[in-house]
Structure to design on (1452 residues):
């Protein structure tokens, strides 16, 4: 449903890049869950731009909780988080008001909203809207941790540079969650940031792949049809701007394997069942098997580049040229990673509440 | 929602591999749409196994429409399609009744349903359940064609062999929709079937990648958040058994590109707007842009193989060995392709009904 | 959503009065719940017509479970129940094929489905479609009983005759659930059936009010907004044909009281909290308080009467006269009662699964 | 779904009586609809208390639109309306912090939220939360008017005084929409306000019945099952605080009639079809027939009264006495009326968008 996602635990997002405020309503979370405003603030920091890789716009992005939290804990009723847009001084948008930026949603917005959309800074299509997901997701991430469930995402590859694979996932998750630029291998990270700096110099941009792991998640959650864990996660992941691919476990590589190497053999230890490998990414038949949930997302390069591009005028639908000015991110992959964690946490909280009841998360 | 998917047009599926019958309820389709039972039957044929690649089980798979169609046309009320399971003679399932087949959902089903699941032939997890999707999807596919919207899927790669890319998509769609083994390049197809035959000989199995294109779909359909076209398609695609990855446009490859090569430049011709390339797969900001919708799905190799595998006993959760007997498909990718087309058609009918109203599809 | 209702536990119904078969898919019920086919059959009997009050059509209404039940217990996957329409010999519908019966949905069906609807016997609008609700509801009713939750409905009034109020609700529920014509006071029942017989003689029909009570339902279930217990129950109750009003507790009478007499004072006994009165019908702020849930539904008189009526021709939309022939029920209130129980049980199972998790009902 | 209601057009509400702010997110409304802030303000005035009937709390209730409106028109993306709670000075709630007020949701909130709920002023259960519904509903009401659809609600009865019935509905709707205290007959209104003043003097409270009519609504909208117009309207109506009954057309009275007087005969005039009477309230088989939609809601008396009441202590669950102090409304029925109009408008916009597509309302 449009701007609301989830069933037992649901999030609604709103706002435009240059409007008054953006935010989210997080509904259905159990009552009695601690809300840590410092943690929310630190997650918001991760979503913001970093050093040399940053945009000019530096919002405070202060999250204000205006409902659903009482005495520092969730009440069980909707939690509303708002973030004022401060850096929205009126300005002349010039040709961006009517020229469709290639790779952006300007043209499709026009076809859907017939010119009534707020075009300023991408309006409701702006990556800025993910701030509401990060703020609400932070509460979900904290709640999951209390139940022993941890999520972490690293930049698996960027501009041709590849990070190392997950090894000790628990340790790796802990490591990357403390980093601004989330890579497991420091050298790879260094090489990536150099490539990003190069792209900036060239007036170009890069994308990359993110890899996410979830540990501590119980088995037996998810549905065989339609609401598979893969399906519900992919549904929300594809609304994170720039995501163009989602794969679970070995994903597209798995498709090239033989069954004899693709199957995950079982073993048991102290009464618990595990698989020797995890090609399936912790999900079989749409249902979790207790192994780490692992997936990767493809992040396309930021479409705002400085080279002149062929485009059309949205008023006349005639051809024209566009040269984007101003300062833009040459990469958003390092910022997208906390958005991925956040939507993952929101989906998992929903799945757990559906499976074990609305109070389970607070028990 | 579990076994129901869709909003304005929704499908509900039911049944188990060795139960009485399987089927689907297709609800919300406009009244007055032609229902072509021959076309349904021919789509069911595509879903069945083909020649040397086939399983022993050869059901007639006769689709009986028991509601929602009157005088050959949809009434607007639920269309129920049932398919009797004929080849379900009672037999001894032996160790398959309690040993988890690696790569299958036996273990996760046990964790979710606590031993009450129908284990015979995979029960509700069986690929056989897709027959209901194909039967209902056939009605949707036909309805879309009448509106000038065509869907086609080919086997992009299988066992290391790659098909050629789409070139003239309209022509290519037409070509593959008449093939049992849907490849654009005959030689590639020949090589793939040989590889599949090899895998069969080795008691092994293969997977592959499918590529789907949709043409004639209007622009301006989809949502910027949550119900992006990518998100809703991926949601249902991931419940097609064996799908472990979904990517739109250039997908994971796009993630490795620079913005300057990733953006699709616009041009206009006779008052219509097009993009020169289609790296985004016809979707920007979650909304269609009128270009072909293109996506790829990763199909993991069939998990039923003949080599001995390490597994666990579901009753004791202790380690054991499993050697699967009987005849099983060494590949299902050529059969999965019509399932992908079907669920795609169902999702697109829903999106169109939401956008243009419930009657549009019949107008 | 059209023909599907519920969230964690959902029912989908299908079929037309004179089609091939009708039925229901019950999805999301916990695995391991006993399915008592005899009980289903006895509930189906209650839905059928009784003695002198009956219609000519006497279907066997044999319910066949074709999925979701294995070894007598729910598997956790969709339970499909089908009922063949046996008494549907082809006949000439004459003027009923194109004249709108006043009080029926013929005209509104025409406006919605443009003439493609199955008009025979009311098609998908027929009260016969409730058979699927009763069949699936029977499984829900039994499951609730195992958790100590009992539902019962009596005919509170019919044709000016009033039944006595509930007194010992547990005993009263038990009593009426064993009656074909569910009244608490035998004499009232006798008087009602006489009035119904009179109406039949006059070629007329009667309606009435049903009163339902639920005991043993836990407190703390429901939502303050939108998904109030009243709201979700009313939502499904209004789709039971002929229902035109729903009130909880003292309902419309409560509206005429003063606060000092309307409020239910609390008391506690052995650590449990109760209210001295139950004007609110067991629900406050949309949430159950542990007291009996009590509501009443208004059933309008059966619209099929034998007097000549002014109507319109659906083809020409011009005025015409209609005289309905054949045999029709002079009352359906005694048959509607089991439908009310059934949909109530379905809604309550859904609410409990949402609150306590998907497995709770089977624990 | 909890605090979100609707499908194509959906509203999400949030906030607590004494929290920071309350509000609503209205999602899915077509782009290009005029947003009249003055009209929103005037609807908010209707929701506030009136003269001698008022509470002490007099909020400005200024609605601030923070997203989804650009240049005075809807953008098509979520419209967020916020209302700051100004009159929430910290104070000692005394025994109201732990004693359950009879007739209020204090006890059920405790059972659901385990003491974490915001108890101040009823928290999320407060009638104040309806302000978000009125603000968003005002946009819907205006949009409907532009399409020729008008909604009006009058106080049919209050404290034993009865207003006259609707006669010329169009004129009557126009009349009551300009009144603070919405009655068709001025004398009845005078008598009602006197009764309310009496109740106030006695430390007591009254309820009443509201009657709503909608004209200009097209035929053929709604569903035969589950999403009947009655069902979806009742669903949301029952979440309006104090509503305990909903009936359509003649409702409970219809249940007492004979078929021969209950059926609405058809006639045609200038090619249009009408019914001579409107006992069914404009809905047959769940679908509109083009006649006025008419329904009544039962509003229970405000539970806050000044007489001492028996209750329980929420901490100990032991019996205690409660004497509510401060100033409270002796009636809310005259304020509830605009809430009823608002939720009706929201539901109807959703139904129209589902039927005719997302853009219809702005065409």
């Amino acid at each position: 449903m449009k701007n609301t996602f989830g069933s037992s635990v649901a999030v609604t997002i709103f706002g435009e890049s240059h409007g008054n405020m953006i935010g989210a309503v997080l509904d259905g979370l159990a009552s009695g869950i601690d809300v840590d405003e410092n943690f929310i603030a630190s997650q918001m920091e991760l979503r913001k731009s970093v050093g040399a890789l940053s945009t000019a716009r530096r919002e405070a992005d202060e999250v204000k909780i205006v409902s659903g939290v009482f005495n520092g804990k969730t009440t069980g009723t909707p939690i509303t988080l708002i973030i004022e847009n401060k850096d929205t001084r009126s300005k002349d948008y010039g040709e961006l008001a009517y020229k469709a930026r290639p790779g952006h949603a300007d043209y499709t917005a026009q076809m859907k909203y017939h010119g009534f959309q707020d075009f300023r800074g991408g309006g409701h299509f702006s990556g800025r809207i993910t701030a509401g997901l990060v703020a609400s997701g932070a509460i979900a991430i904290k709640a999951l941790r209390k139940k022993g469930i941890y999520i972490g995402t690293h930049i698996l590859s960027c501009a041709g540079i590849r990070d190392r694979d997950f090894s000790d996932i628990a340790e790796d998750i802990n490591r990357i969650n403390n980093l601004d630029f989330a890579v497991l291998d420091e050298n790879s990270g260094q090489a990536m940031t150099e490539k990003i700096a190069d792209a900036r110099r060239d007036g170009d941009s890069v994308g990359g792949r993110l890899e996410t792991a979830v540990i501590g998640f119980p088995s037996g959650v998810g549905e065989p049809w339609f609401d598979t864990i893969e399906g519900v996660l992919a549904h929300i992941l594809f609304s994170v701007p720039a995501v163009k691919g989602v794969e679970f476990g070995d994903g597209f590589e798995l498709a090239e394997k033989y069954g004899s190497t693709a199957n995950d053999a079982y073993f048991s230890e102290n009464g618990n069942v595990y698989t020797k490998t995890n090609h399936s990414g912790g999900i079989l038949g749409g249902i979790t098997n207790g192994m780490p949930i692992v997936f990767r997302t493809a992040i396309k390069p930021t479409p705002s580049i400085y080279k002149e591009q062929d485009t059309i005028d949205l008023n006349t639908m005639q051809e024209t040229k566009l040269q984007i000015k101003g300062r833009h991110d040459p990469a958003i992959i390092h910022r997208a990673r906390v958005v991925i964690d956040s939507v993952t946490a929101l989906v998992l909280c929903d799945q757990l509440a559906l499976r074990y009841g609305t109070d389970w998360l607070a028990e």
In short: Chain D has a mean pLDDT of 95. The two ends of chain D are 30 Å apart (CA to CA). The first strand of chain D starts at residue 4 and ends at 6. Chain D touches chain A through 45 residues (CB under 8 Å).
